[in-house]
């Protein structure tokens, strides 16, 4: 369908345009090459389109400006970390006050209880703890789950992503559990630590959990990290029934699916998990995450919490639940990510979805665009049922071109997602700019416009 020679030529033109547009970013990138491994402070930043990463100057609301003075509509929003929009004044003021009055003491601060009560109200589980990232929160919950059940293995979905949690970097190869391609220096053979399941297949879940060695199922209620794969009707009810019947704890990771509303899919779809994990956006950009649990789980954990060895239990950390994180969570959740903000952001995502779907249909492409709340993503296949079907449609060169084309025309997309995330700071004009730019890219690719 896509002419690969044409794609390669167009990509070369866009690379040249990118280099011309960003002389100052080029200087920063050159200076970084040496002091920083691969010229970046974090490995994923090598994935940005263009032959070097942009260096950003400011990010405010839904706009990002780079060191060359170019402005972008930010549809990446820090890959969900800035889902509220960037640099919100009320969050900035609260953070600045806290910075002047003490950031980290290892004591509870005056915001901890407020934050826990608000999370309980939103997600419906009563007892909460904090972490600095969703990765950490997931790691801690997996430990609790193994402790509580006395079972060694965890279960995840094929092609899931839950952060840099060793046991979760596993996929299915036929019936075998193997490391996910790209996973570096696995700490243990994932075939020993992990059961991997196809999404939307209740029978496979039932069969695997019946073996009795799985402590917990860690899941997103809709997969969001291999495009968006929605659960089929009745599937999540079946998951709850099957996990409960086999004594397997159900952990719902709402880190991305918070896009569905103030209490994520757990509230929107009336789910009934044993643990909820949420990270990224809840700190308004400051590192913060949280995990909540039912009263039944909390009651069982009171014993270990009272032990003198709790500081070496493998849960928590020196800066975990520091006062700055919790102030940021309170300032964010008291003023953002509420129903009134979703009421603005979700219609923008609907408009995006409609615009992209029209372009796809106009060009007769076998692609689709999927939406969950204020998040939307296009993918190069019809709607897949599971992660493996979605993974089979990954097209790196096509994705890299579309991202670079968009970047060169003032739109920032997350490098490893074809995702657009909307905050109340975005406008209809932002959406329409993307639709126009996306339409022009597809026209250029398919040769249907000059
Ligand atoms: C569903 C989910 N859980 C957890 C994480 C980990 O978040 P972090 O990288 O902030 O630790 C991610 C990151 O993308 C995620 O998508």
Would you mind describing this structure in some detail?
- The structure is a single chain.
- By secondary structure, this protein is an alpha/beta fold.
- It is 40% helix and 16% strand.
- The strands form four sheets. The protein has a seven-stranded mixed sheet with strand order 4-12-11-10-9-5-8, with helices on both faces. A four-stranded mixed sheet has the order 1-2-3-15.
- It is globular, with a radius of gyration of 22 Å.
- The model has no long low-confidence stretch (mean pLDDT 97).
- The site of pyridoxal-5'-phosphate (PLP) has 14 residues, from helix 5.
- Pyridoxal-5'-phosphate is lined by residues 133-135, 138, 161-163, 220, 225, 253, 255-256, 279-280.
